[in-house]
Amino acid sequence: xxxxxxxxxxxxxxxxxxAIAEALTANDNKVISISRSTDKIERALTxxxxxxGKTDFITGxxxxxxxxxxxxxxxxxxxxxxxxxxxxxxIISVGNLQSLSSGDWQRMLDVNLTGPxxxxxxxxxxxxxxxxxxxxxxxxxxxxxxxxxxxxxVSKAGLDMLTRFLVADLGPYNIRVNSINPGLVKTHxxxxxxxxxxxxxxxxxxxxxxxxxxxxxVGEPExxxxxxxxxxxxxxxxxxxxxxxxxxxxxEENSFLKPKEDAMLK
Length: 266
Hints:
Elements: E1 6-10, H1 15-26, E2 30-35, H2 38-47, E3 55-59, H3 65-78, E4 84-87, H4 102-129, E5 134-138, H5 150-170, E6 176-182, H6 189-192, H7 199-212, H8 221-231, E7 243-246, H9 259-264
Parallel strand pairs: 1-2, 1-4, 2-3, 4-5, 5-6, 6-7
């Protein structure tokens, strides 16, 4: 590939994953995306037609060893090496211990946690060949503090621990492993997972979240993509094991600081 980096993004056909694909191809790198839905791939190419030919959109299941093995063989045949693995695929079902079904619990663990484990394990031979590869797990602030889904929060907390474990495990191969923990980001996620079904309710939720963020804004997919672009680059060659909240300061929200007190600090 003559100095061009090859990166694989799971869930690269929508939301944060699609923004990452766009950011990495802007640097003239080759991007491969694996996602389950052909409909999302068609939507991605409609929203981002300039990615056609720059990103290989492949259908597959990140929780299936067979599917990932086929993907590994494809990358090995066409590129021979993998410089970046971005585990971005994720699903969410809202619910607590009493309301969340065991089926939804298992599906979140399969995609959000087992998926990154299998992807990293099966693609490791290609990552080793890069002599400086970067694995980036797209986690969530829900892994740092409880969110609206017990299954989602537990899967993301597990993903952060997977990141921390792999730092020493893969360090001898000069493979860096980091987590990015987004706050609320405006994507199709809530609609694709049937958490919201109309725009008005979604907009109300966004506004409620916006005022809770110290920076008074919710995230855009590009906010996460910019951090990925840095962590996959050579400029981040001495960063491994970082758990990075990209969340507008929400992890440091002070619920005791009232709006009128906030005004006095200006």
